[in-house]
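Is this the right way to post structure tokens for a design question? Let me know if I should format differently. Anyway, here goes:
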């Protein structure tokens, strides 16, 4: 029973931390994204990946 609980809860604590770390590395609020990651553990990772991709696309120079 304890092993099953650990298997279920580990990703739920890992995903918010990974989401917040990615957000912080790209100039976003760590705690805001950690909270979002706690509320939506799997979805938040895809959302921050989209946000980072969109920000990189905006910063890329336009071809001549």
């Amino acid at each position: 029973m304890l092993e099953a609980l650990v298997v279920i809860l580990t990703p739920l604590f890992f995903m918010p931390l990974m989401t917040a770390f990615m957000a912080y590395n790209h100039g976003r609020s760590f705690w805001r994204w950690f909270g979002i990651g706690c509320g939506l553990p799997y979805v938040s990772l895809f959302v921050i990946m989209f946000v980072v991709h969109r920000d990189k696309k905006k910063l890329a120079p336009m071809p001549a």
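Format looks fine. Someone answered above. Worth noting: The chain is about 80% helix and 0% strand. The chain has a mean pLDDT of 87.
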